[in-house]
């Protein structure tokens, strides 16, 4: 500080080998924050030897990451999900997803540059790729980012103080980490996410080499912010990276405040400015990614039915009503839309409740349909035809007549699903043609003036503008709906009840379609207003958060975050043709990271106790540097792992990869400390330990690489590779010896091939339950009939079907050769498989009969 005298003495000479400079102040020693020129030179690649090592690293990484990218030549687990989104982008279709869009946008750019026209359907895991989809190019993009991540790993370790040989060894271990090798070879988000995080880490560490006020420091802070913005725009875990960078700014600021050679005001100024950069730039990138996302989704789809109609109306091909007659009155034929959920319209179909009143069901249905139509009647004049138009004002008592001749009705029966909630009663459709109804059909309109458009809509019911409640006249409860769905007997549609309490928004309704012959032809019309970008942005995020909540539903591949550090299991990505792709980490490295976390925590506690009793700790600059750098990476591990502990049990082990990456960096610095601190005078011992550690990692990779590349393996070798009883990759799928693979002919695309793969595939990222809602029975039957009448020109001939059946019998007659399984690893009964195949072939035969006629 200016005006302060500082007595300077260096604990150890600050030569090129020194990592931290410590000086004596008037009261205490303090650390110099800025790195010396020698340290900057030492941590930056500059020698021919280092450049040669880096080149060798790249060659090895290319071989591992790009090996057999074309295999499997069929859709792998979750490639069906992300591939479908790429196809939707190519066709400009609207879709909903639970994650931000950056990775999908990048894959879309690669696909479009490769000439992809969106004409491939990613139907299920195991569907064979065709020339229509540039899947190898898309996988190459993921592999390229995986290659860059390896280079960044090496550079980050060097910036953190590791010497060139330990940085090389750790990066080599990272190359042969099975989990990263697997995910960087597939059309998945994991490789881009890890790349962005690695780039953010590298750039921030690079900025620390320069003085805080230098342009170079700000340049790398900006790069770090851009990378963190891309990470957070790809997956929510990227927000953890931004938090980590912010915490590091605070961490560094504490040392800056303790550095007596730096003015306090300058330290505050640069910390605030860099903190602002790390917030503003990611926010801008996040908004830009959604701007691109929204601009590409211009056409309607099934998903678009679950966004607000204001958004739907901006999509090409929408069926949202427009130019609606705004005045709603007695005798109007209307559709009622719910405001509080994604459910949609008040609906009834000719199915009855199986219990309770056993009257006709009332549901909430998300699609425009004629069974959403209701006619407004006065409660005391049902069926009366008026001569003059009569508005509906606040407190008007009405009845709603469905086009199936029953009326909206409630009574003292328990709700069909929410029967344990005493504040909810059943709502049904009761009556028949010619029946005038009863008092339980009476509902009172209560206009919500705060929710309605200011003006006339607050005084009388106007289409779209007026938001109102329907209070049951007899019991006082209000027409209500929530996200709870009816079971199969209710066609999985949303439950509607009459609630005496509950969230206000869930009791609000408004009129969308409105027809009344008493209104003049030139009557006032209304349409949904157009949304701005920010309004669409907010609407998408409401649906994304809703989908995130729905991810709590169980999935067979999900695990608890507590099980990740022990790698108690993996995920079966692909299982076909006696081969498997299975997500599994490299146990040697994975468990070493977990063990290191425990050991370091114990060490830190011991050191704190020693410090409390007055014993010296952290005596040398090398030790101080190691702990400072390692703690930064361990903080990154904690920030990227701890939040998942609170997200429930429906998580996927691949979400552990960002935290695991920070763990690998900390392991690298620990290996470096063995060479430079623990065995400083006998460094060859440290290098031997490092070499043995990396060799064991390569051994594990080589022993399990058939699971990475989906290549041939024998049943015995597979069984011997199972280090833990909880690893469930299916060794029964493999042949007994490699000669059998030579005789095995890979099947062509056919129903047989499709059956042979994951018949029951469920993408892990689809979570918007209402999208899965079944349509009314009549509509289902109509669509089924239309599908059965479609002719598939690519379907195999009847001769080919017979050939497939014969081939199936031949294979089943060869003992021990074929095992059928679903995506969960369950072995299927051959007779059941044959039955499903026969049913599939029967449909194909029927199509060919239609075609021939």
UniProtKB/TrEMBL annotation:
Xref: SUPFAM superfamilies: MIR domain
GO MF, one example: dolichyl-phosphate-mannose-protein mannosyltransferase activity
Pfam families with a match to the protein in the record: MIR, PMT, PMT_4TMC
Chain ranges passing through the membrane: 52-71, 136-155, 162-180, 186-204, 242-260, 272-296, 589-609, 630-653, 659-678, 685-701
Region (Disordered): 774-803
Keywords for this protein: Endoplasmic reticulum, Glycoprotein, Glycosyltransferase, Membrane, Repeat, Transferase, Transmembrane, Transmembrane helix
Membrane topology: Multi-pass membrane protein
Composition-biased stretches (Low complexity): 779-788
Pathways per UniProt: Protein modification; protein glycosylation
Catalytic reaction annotation: a di-trans,poly-cis-dolichyl beta-D-mannosyl phosphate + L-threonyl-[protein] = 3-O-(alpha-D-mannosyl)-L-threonyl-[protein] + a di-trans,poly-cis-dolichyl phosphate + H(+); a di-trans,poly-cis-dolichyl beta-D-mannosyl phosphate + L-seryl-[protein] = 3-O-(alpha-D-mannosyl)-L-seryl-[protein] + a di-trans,poly-cis-dolichyl phosphate + H(+)
Predominant location: endoplasmic reticulum
EC number: 2.4.1.109
InterPro entries tied to this protein: ArnT-like_N, MIR_dom_sf, MIR_motif, PMT-like, PMT_4TMC
EC class: transferase
One cellular component term from this protein's GO annotations in UniProt: endoplasmic reticulum membrane
Subcellular location: Endoplasmic reticulum membrane
Domain MIR: 325-379, 458-514
Homology family: Belongs to the glycosyltransferase 39 family.
The protein's role, per its UniProt record: Transfers mannose from Dol-P-mannose to Ser or Thr residues on proteins.
Record-given protein name: Dolichyl-phosphate-mannose--protein mannosyltransferase
Organism, scientific name: Maudiozyma barnettii
């Amino acid at each position: 500080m200016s005006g302060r005298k500082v007595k300077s003495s260096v604990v150890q000479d600050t030569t090129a080998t020194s990592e931290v400079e410590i000086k004596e102040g008037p009261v205490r020693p303090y650390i110099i924050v800025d790195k010396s020129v020698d340290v900057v030179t030492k941590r930056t690649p500059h020698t021919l030897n280092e450049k040669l090592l880096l080149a060798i690293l790249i060659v090895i990484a290319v071989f591992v990451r790009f090996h057999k990218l074309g295999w499997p030549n069929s859709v792998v687990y979750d490639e069906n999900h992300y591939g479908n989104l790429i196809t939707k982008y190519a066709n400009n279709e609207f879709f909903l997803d639970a994650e931000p869009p950056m990775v999908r946008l990048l894959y879309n750019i690669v696909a479009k540059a490769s000439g992809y026209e969106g004409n491939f359907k990613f139907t299920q895991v195991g569907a064979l790729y065709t020339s229509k989809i540039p899947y190898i190019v898309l996988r190459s993009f993921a592999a390229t980012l995986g290659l860059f991540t390896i280079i960044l790993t090496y550079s980050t370790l060097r910036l953190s103080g590791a010497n060139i040989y330990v940085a090389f060894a750790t990066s080599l271990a990272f190359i042969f980490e099975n989990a990263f090798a697997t995910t960087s070879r597939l059309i998945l988000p994991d490789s881009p996410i890890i790349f962005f995080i690695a780039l953010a880490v590298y750039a921030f560490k690079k900025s620390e080499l320069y003085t805080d006020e230098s342009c170079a420091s700000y340049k790398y802070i900006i790069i770090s912010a851009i990378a963190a913005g891309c990470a957070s725009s790809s997956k929510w875990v990227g927000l953890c990276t931004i938090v980590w960078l912010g915490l590091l700014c605070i961490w560094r600021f504490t040392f800056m405040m303790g550095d007596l050679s730096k003015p306090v005001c300058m330290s505050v100024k640069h910390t605030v400015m860099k903190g602002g950069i790390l917030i503003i730039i990611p926010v801008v990138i996040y908004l830009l990614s959604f701007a691109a996302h929204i601009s590409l989704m211009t056409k309607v789809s099934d998903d678009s039915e679950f966004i607000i109609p204001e958004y739907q109306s901006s999509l090409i091909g929408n069926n949202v009503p427009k130019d609606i007659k705004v005045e709603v009155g007695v005798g109007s034929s209307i559709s009622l839309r719910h405001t509080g959920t994604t459910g949609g319209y008040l609906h009834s179909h000719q199915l009855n409740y199986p219990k309770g009143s056993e009257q006709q069901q009332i549901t909430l249905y998300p699609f425009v349909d004629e069974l959403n139509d209701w006619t407004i009647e006065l409660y005391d004049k049902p069926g009366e035809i008026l001569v003059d138009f009569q508005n509906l004002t606040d407190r008007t008592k009405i009845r709603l007549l469905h086009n199936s001749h029953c009326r909206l009705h409630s009574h003292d029966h328990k709700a069909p699903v929410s029967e344990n909630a005493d504040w909810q009663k059943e709502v049904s459709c009761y009556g028949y043609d010619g029946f005038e109804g009863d008092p339980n059909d009476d509902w009172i309109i209560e206009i919500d003036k705060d929710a309605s458009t200011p003006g006339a809509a607050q005084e009388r019911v106007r289409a779209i503008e007026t938001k109102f409640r329907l209070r049951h006249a007899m019991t006082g409860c209000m027409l209500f709906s929530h996200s709870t769905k009816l079971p199969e007997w209710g066609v999985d549609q949303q439950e509607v009840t009459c609630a005496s309490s509950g969230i206000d928004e869930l009791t609000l309704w408004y009129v969308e379609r409105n027809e009344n012959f008493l209104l003049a032809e030139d009557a006032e019309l209304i349409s949904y207003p157009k949304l701005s970008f920010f309004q669409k942005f907010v609407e998408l995020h409401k649906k994304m958060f809703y989908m995130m909540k729905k991810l709590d539903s169980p999935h067979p591949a999900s695990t608890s975050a507590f099980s990740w550090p022990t790698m108690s299991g993996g995920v079966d990505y692909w299982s076909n043709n006696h081969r498997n792709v299975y997500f599994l980490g490299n146990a040697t490295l994975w468990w070493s990271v977990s063990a290191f976390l425990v050991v370091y925590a114990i060490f830190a506690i011991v050191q704190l106790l020693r410090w409390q009793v007055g014993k010296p700790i952290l005596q040398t600059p090398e030790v101080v540097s190691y702990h400072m750098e390692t703690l930064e990476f361990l903080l990154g591990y904690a920030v990227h792992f701890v939040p998942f502990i609170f997200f429930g049990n429906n998580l996927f082990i691949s979400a552990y990869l960002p935290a695991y990456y920070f763990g690998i960096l900390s392991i690298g610095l620990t290996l470096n400390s063995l060479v430079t601190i623990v065995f400083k005078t006998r460094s060859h011992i440290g290098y031997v330990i490092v070499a043995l550690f990396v060799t064991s990692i390569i051994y594990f990779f080589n022993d399990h690489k058939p699971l990475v590349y989906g290549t041939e393996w024998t049943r015995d070798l597979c069984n011997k590779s199972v280090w833990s009883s909880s690893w469930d990759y299916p060794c029964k799928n493999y042949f007994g010896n490699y000669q059998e693979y030579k005789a095995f002919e890979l099947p062509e695309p056919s129903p047989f091939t499709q059956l042979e793969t994951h018949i029951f595939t469920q993408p892990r990222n689809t979570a918007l339950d209402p999208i899965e809602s079944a349509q009314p029975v009549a509509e289902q039957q109509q669509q089924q009939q239309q599908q059965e009448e479609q002719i598939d020109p690519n379907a195999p001939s009847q001769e080919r079907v017979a050939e497939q059946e014969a081939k199936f019998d031949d294979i089943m007659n060869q003992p021990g050769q074929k095992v059928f399984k679903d995506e969960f690893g369950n072995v299927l009964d051959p007779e059941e498989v044959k039955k499903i195949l026969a049913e599939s072939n029967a449909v194909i035969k029927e199509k060919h009969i239609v075609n021939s006629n």
